[in-house]
Amino acid sequence: MADQNDLYKYFEPTVQHNTLALSNIHTLTSWGVGTAAGILGLTGWNGFIFFLLSWVVISAAVLTIKCEGKPSVFFKSGTMDVVGTPVLNTLLSYVLVWTLMHALVYIYD
């Protein structure tokens, strides 16, 4: 059973707002990173390594700048909400934009 303090630790509308803001950050940066990867002509594993490196940088920036080093204050699962949870949805957006931009730039090579 949950402790009485844990039940009222988070105000749900604020947590939902933080989650939405984090989702917007991840989506927009995945589009930007996908565009960069497509324009740079990255293919295969190089593109996925580029995504992973950018994911680490973006997650570290969110943890240090937006969360002020204390993600458990803003999210129920703490660091897992910032780093782990949205990675698959962001990866799908990244691959979509990456392949689109690569095709647009290098279609006549």
Automatic annotation (TrEMBL):
* Compartments (UniProt record): Endoplasmic reticulum membrane
Which organism does this sequence originate in? Coemansia erecta
Indicate the family of this protein: Belongs to the EMC6 family.
Q: Which residues form the signal peptide?
A: none
What is the protein's name according to its record? ER membrane protein complex subunit 6
The record's annotation in InterPro entries points to: Emc6, EMC6-like
Question: Can you supply one Gene Ontology CC term for this chain's record?
Answer: EMC complex
Q: Keywords on this record? A: Endoplasmic reticulum, Membrane, Transmembrane, Transmembrane helix
| GO biological process: one example | protein folding in endoplasmic reticulum
List all membrane-crossing ranges.
Answer: 45-65, 86-108
Query: Where is this protein chiefly located?
Result: endoplasmic reticulum
